[in-house]
Amino acid sequence: MAEDRDLVEEGGPEPQERAQEGQNQQGSQGLLGTTISRRAFLTGAVAGGAVGVVATSGVIAVAGGALPQAPGLPGAPARPSGEPVDAQLITLNVNGKDYEVYAKANKTLLEALRQDLGLTGTKLGCNYSECSACTVLVDGVAINSCSSLAVREQGKKIITIEGMEKDGKLHPVQQAFWDHMGFQCGFCTPGQIMRTVALLNRAPNPSDDLIRRELSGNLCKCGAYAFIFAAVKDAATKMKSA
Ligand code: FES
Ligand code: FES
Hints:
Elements: H1 2-7, H2 15-24, E1 28-29, E2 35-36, H3 38-43, E3 52-54, E4 59-61, E5 88-94, E6 97-103, H4 109-116, E7 135-138, E8 141-144, E9 157-159, H5 172-179, H6 189-202, H7 208-215, H8 225-241
Parallel strand pairs: 5-9
Antiparallel strand pairs: 1-2, 3-4, 5-6, 7-8, 7-9
Helix pairs in contact: 5-8
The chain binds FE2/S2 (inorganic) cluster (2 copies).
């Protein structure tokens, strides 16, 4: 086979031996230290997951964690199996507590919150900064966590919907949404509440126009906008007396 020739290295077996190998499809000891047949190697069907060879750079990428682990940060806990080798240990302050999570450079804050910390109250909608279902507070500012990198949020105070209730008591904005049924399915509700908290902290007496403008990016596929608006108006009153 022509492909077989490409795999032959100097100092390898003689042509006759290679031909014999090709015919009987016996296994051969490959670069990865595993016994594979040439046919299986070429078709990418090697059991155990050899998924790619970059011959030009000499880098061999192997699925299943066979690559050597990068050294961790000083004092860092052992990297759990399955964590990418290029993930860094970072610290996120969420709802008043510090959490250490492994994060590649492209891990979003939303992924860290939901997948690493299990804080699934923050919702994944579009994952594209279009719906604001993923709204959280970072240093008091409402942001779309699906479009923010986790590594960039280190050293900041992150508040999610789980951090709103205190001592078993709903936050005044949560209470207002409850009182006015400012939701239908509830999927957008955590984002609506977090956006409202940011607004009322900044503008305790918002005009109707300001409310509409501030919440215009928080989409509600149920169309509960009239109830959400009423909830925000009432939340402004409740916040003052809280
Ligand atoms: S999920 Fe983040 S904006 Fe839609
Ligand atoms: S209540 Fe269902 S998406 Fe808003």
